[in-house]
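Incident log, structure service

09:12 report received: a user says their structure output differs between two submissions of the same chain.
09:20 pulled the input from the user's history:
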Amino acid sequence: MIRLQDVNTLSPAQFVETFGGIYEHSPWVAEAAVTQRPFASLQQMQQVFSQAVRQAPESQKLALVRAHPELGHRMGIDPDLSAESTQEQGSAGLDRLSPTEYKQLRELNDAYHKKFGMPFVICVRKATKAIILEALEQRLTSSFTIELAEALKQIDAIASLRLQDKVQA
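09:34 re-ran on a clean worker, output below:
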């Protein structure tokens, strides 16, 4: 863990190296956030990261969502699956799906991706397998605009937890 006061003294390159993975494979978020230092609190830091995403063009927001792995699909296969994502998916039991659960998740993921052109994103650290499957089914009925907003909300929740893991307030 790094203390917040030390976060404020990192060089821009060190800051991006340290926090570039907070938003999955999207160091541009940390690059935008570094310019807003010093942070008075962890909450302010989280808000600055979130604001960087909110101010990005829609194409960049969509690229951020698409940088996230499909849930349960690439476990153990995808070399691009970040250590954080591997751990988070494992915490929700997505690395221990029964054949029936895997088939259901695979079908729902495929339907979601076909409809929205992006992977389904949910903060798995705040969910269980059952909640994830239920949310996937429910969110398939949404519009693209609603789903993009929900995906970004979920990504902020993921990033918030990752920041809490890295920064001592």
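09:41 both user submissions now match this output. Likely a transient worker issue. Closing.
09:42 reviewer note: The CA atoms of residues 112 and 120 lie 7 Å apart. The longest helix spans residues 144-166.
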